[in-house]
């Protein structure tokens, strides 16, 4: 008998903490789809083999998470514009001999900001802290929304300069000022939106950011989720609004779900139920 159930997975290392199986199963239940979605731990130097084993098991698609997003991009036979610009993937479609790569992280962040948190990014002054995969993956989606400026900063400032050089052509095409500034020199009470895309909150490390960067009119967005970070606490102490990255996580998953099933799932109830946990 043919197996009509479609199979999916999220691949990372570590992977035990991933909420993706829970999120995709919840979307599928709501859509009335019978799918299978598992978390797969890939050895660090075995990512390519892991993918080919999953293709041999007739998986329809996979999400890719830390630390394989860049390596995943090297394996694809075609890719979306967002994946190409980030040179990283978080969603794969397996179709006969093809591996199609997508990156839905930026779309997830922007949807969370705009639809769930009701922030219109147009003409806003935005500070993005961090220059790792998460920061790089969201820049194009932010630029597309026409903020007045996007300022990049990072502990290792050279990495911000590299990203600026790469993204400047896109910033110009959207008429956005793309700047780099040292973290200690960030102007105070200036930015409307301050996004923490570093791993400091995850690792309980200190971010060397003057808390007076935050103010009553700002939103401090931490991409990390699952706990209140000192980044969020400092922002609150200055009267700033705050959000963690749970909404981004669910929204990037919703876009992956749409790519695989052509169904747009409801995200609000899933965000609420995960937050209640
Ligand atoms: P990377 O390891 O690629 O990058 C880490 C970044 O954090 C670098 O910019 C690094 O700076 C900075 N950093 C690390 N330690 C410190 C420190 N002590 N002080 C200052 N800066 C520091 O990680 P990712 O970019 O993949 O992920 C970053 C965060 O985003 C994680 O918390 C992750 O969980 C979250 N994330 C959330 C998502 C969501 O859907 N909500 C999706 C993707 C990621 P340097 O360059 O100087 O080393």
Helices and strands, with pairings:
Blueprint: E1 6-12, H1 20-31, E2 35-41, H2 47-56, E3 61-64, H3 69-75, E4 78-79, H4 81-86, E5 91-95, E6 98-102, H5 105-116, E7 125-129, H6 133-143, E8 149-153, H7 157-173, E9 177-180, E10 193-196, E11 219-222, H8 230-237, E12 241-243, H9 246-261, H10 268-276
Parallel strand pairs: 1-2, 1-3, 4-6, 7-8, 7-10, 8-9, 10-11, 11-12
Antiparallel strand pairs: 3-5, 5-6
The structure holds NADPH dihydro-nicotinamide-adenine-dinucleotide phosphate.
NADPH dihydro-nicotinamide-adenine-dinucleotide phosphate binds at residues 66, 105, 108, 130-135, 154-156, 159, 197-202, 205, 207, 223-225, 245, 248-249, 252.
Give a brief outline of the structure.
Helices cover 39% and strands 20% of the residues. The protein is built from ten helices and twelve strands. The structure holds NADPH dihydro-nicotinamide-adenine-dinucleotide phosphate.
Please give a structural write-up.
The chain has helices spanning 20-31, 47-56, 69-75, 81-86, 105-116, 133-143, 157-173, 230-237, 246-261, 268-276, and strands at residues 6-12, 35-41, 61-64, 78-79, 91-95, 98-102, 125-129, 149-153, 177-180, 193-196, 219-222, 241-243. The protein is globular, with a radius of gyration of 19 Å. It folds into 2 domains: 6-103 and 249-276, Rossmann fold, CATH 3.40.50; 106-244, 3-Layer(aba) Sandwich (Rossmann fold), CATH 3.40.50.720. With 277 residues, it is α/β, with parallel strands linked by helices. Helix content is 39%, strand content 20%. The chain has 10 helices and 12 strands. Strand 7, helix 6 and strand 8 (149-153) form a beta-alpha-beta unit. Bound molecules: NADPH dihydro-nicotinamide-adenine-dinucleotide phosphate.
């Amino acid at each position: 008998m043919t197996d009509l159930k479609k199979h999916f997975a999220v691949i990372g290392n570590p992977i035990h903490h991933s909420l993706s199986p829970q999120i995709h199963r919840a979307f599928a239940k709501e859509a009335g789809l019978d799918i299978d979605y598992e978390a797969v731990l890939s050895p660090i130097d075995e990512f390519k083999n892991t993918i080919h084993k999953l293709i041999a098991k007739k998986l329809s698609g996979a999400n890719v998470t830390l630390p394989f997003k860049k390596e995943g991009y090297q394996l694809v036979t075609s890719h979306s514009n967002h994946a190409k610009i980030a040179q990283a993937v978080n969603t794969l479609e397996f179709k006969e001999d093809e591996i199609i790569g997508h990156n839905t992280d930026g779309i997830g962040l922007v949807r969370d900001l705009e639809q769930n948190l009701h922030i219109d990014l147009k003409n806003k002054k935005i500070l993005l802290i961090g220059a790792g995969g998460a920061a790089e993956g969201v820049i194009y989606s932010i630029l597309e929304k026409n903020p007045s400026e996007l300022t990049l900063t990072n502990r290792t400032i050279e990495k911000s300069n590299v990203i600026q050089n790469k993204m400047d052509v896109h910033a110009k095409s959207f008429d956005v000022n793309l700047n780099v500034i040292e973290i200690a020199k960030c102007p105070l009470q200036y930015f409307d939106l301050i996004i923490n895309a570093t791993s400091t909150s995850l690792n309980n490390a200190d971010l060397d950011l003057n808390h007076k960067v935050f103010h009553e009119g700002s939103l401090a967005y931490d991409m990390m989720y699952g706990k209140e970070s000192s980044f969020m606490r400092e922002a609150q102490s200055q009267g700033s609004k705050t959000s963690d990255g749970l909404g981004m996580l669910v929204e990037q998953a919703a876009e992956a779900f749409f790519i695989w099933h052509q169904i747009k799932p409801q995200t609000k109830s899933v965000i609420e139920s995960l937050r209640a946990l």
